[in-house]
Amino acid sequence: MNGKATRIDLLSFKTPQMRAFHLTWMAFFVCFFAWFACAPLMPVLKGEFGLTPNQIANINIAAVAVTILVRLVIGPLCDRFGPRKTYTGLLAIGALPVLGVAFAQNYETFLFFRLLIGAVGASFVITQYHTSVMFAPNVVGTANAASAGWGNAGGGAAQGLMPLLLATILFLGVDHTMGWRVALLVPGILMLVMAVVYWRFTQDCPEGNFSELRARGIAVSGGKGGGGWASFRAASANYRVWMLFITYGACFGVEIFIHNVAATFYVDRFGLSLSAAGMAAASFGLLALFARALGGYVSDKLAMRRGLDARSLILFVFILGEGLGLLGFAHASTATTAVAAMLVFGLFTHMACGATYALVPFIDRKALGGVAGIIGAGGNVGAVAAGFLMKGLGDLQQTLTWLGVAATLAALCAIAVRFSAEHKAQEQALYDSALAN
User: Which range is the signal sequence, renumbered to this chain (predicted)?
Assistant: First the structure.
């Protein structure tokens, strides 16, 4: 617990804790922007490549499928190599398929690059890991939720900005076929810039970098046996991890699915223009600017008053609200009511995501990377399941209805997350120690 920040000074970049906080959400924002840059342009790409509904479904599934594997791997890598090296590597390598998709010539190459782009979605796990080792128990929920929420807003920003970027490029005289390709180069370039910034200005934990600390014989928090697969095995044996795996699939999985289909949904169902549909879809993603942080903040405050179990209870409430709100969105009859319903269920969805990772640091501190990675992968499993559900049903409204029912039932898994008296006593001691120091 040495050196962990007990408060969040938003306007400060002076401490390693606050530099990590700001640069993690910025890196996550860039990654999410790149991950979802294609989604609002799908109506254009559909015509460019002559895509069928089945091919579009495959593309949406590919966009989130590989993230499952990479999220499982990236957590233990953080334990082993530290978040600084891991994030820099992901940004630099992940930029390659982001740039590559701009050069796709047919459905097959587009699908291939879209599959590889999914790897950048693992950035979320590194973001949560880095803030978890930088902030003390009294504010770690808020720090995790705020950094993830502001980073998640990159998905919403992509929905609103990519159509505008394309329109600007076309206005400058670039032809339509080349315009979308130029627009899709921008996110890849931003990722390369962010890789350099992250390497230059962050460190792994308050005491320094993992490699330097281990060389001096100092034990690094967050890893069993020096990190790696021992962390993964310990996390996978913990039932709480799998309960949160399901709840995160219910909230983040739905969020990812909505990002991929929202613009097309508004165009096809209500006849909105590409720009109007993009702005409507962007409103869902931009809720992350405050809603995720609100979920983590509420979790922190309730835990101060009612203990660790209160974090599970508030997560149950948020996911239940999400499920009921999603059912309302699925059956909205006009674009206006659809947007209103989307904002309501979106608020609960983002708060549930924040509340989930407000719980993560308390599951198993010695296997933090494994815990964060498995639960993070659960979000993408939920998104892939939603993609296959839509492919099977062939109707978006029916898919949203069944997702609402599934989310409502998944809320019960949050209630199942309980802690022993000994575990709660240990966490209380760590909490008191952090504040005293």
Answer: none
Which of the following CATH numbers is that of domain 16-436: 1.20.1250.20, 3.40.50.300, 3.90.1150.10, 1.20.1050.10? 1.20.1250.20
Q: What are the mean pLDDT values of the chain's consecutive 10-residue runs (437 residues total)?
A: 82 92 96 89 85 83 83 89 95 94 90 91 93 90 90 84 92 88 94 97 93 84 57 89 96 86 80 80 82 92 88 96 91 88 93 93 87 91 89 86 94 93 86 74
- How many CB atoms within 10 Å of residue 311? 25
The CA-atom distances, in angstroms, between 8 and each of 59, 139, 158 are 39, 7, 28
CA distance 200 to 253: 33
- Work out whether the CA dihedral 383, 326, 159, 353 comes out positive or negative: negative
Per-residue model confidence (pLDDT) at position 60: 77
Q: What is the pLDDT of residue 225?
A: 45
